[in-house]
Design goal:
Blueprint: H1 2-11, E1 21-26, E2 29-34, H2 36-44, E3 53-56, H3 59-71
Parallel strand pairs: 1-3
Antiparallel strand pairs: 1-2
Length: 72
Amino acid sequence: RFMLMENIMKEGYQPDRGDKITGVKKNGSVFLKGGHHRTAILKALGYPGIPEVIVFPNNTLYLIIKRIRKII
């Protein structure tokens, strides 16, 4: 995790197309399902937002997409 932080500090954040930061919307908030460490690092480094986050409208849709991705 420290290597990830050092890399982001040197080169900036480069979103990983294979491992996106994902979240599920619930009661007006977004709960992360993946990308917790990258999100924490970006926050610690003062980034104003988290680029390229995929937010699912509910947990059911998130689980369906997750299973489909395993098949493909």
